[in-house]
Amino acid sequence: MISTSASIPSVAFSANGRFIAAGDAAGALRMYDKQLRNVIFNFNCVRDVRSFVLALHGGHILAACGNNIVSIDRQDGSQVSTLTGHISRINAIAYSPDPTSNSEEGNFTSAEESFFRSA
Question: Which fold has domain 10-116?
Answer without folding.
Answer: Methylamine Dehydrogenase; Chain H (2.130.10)
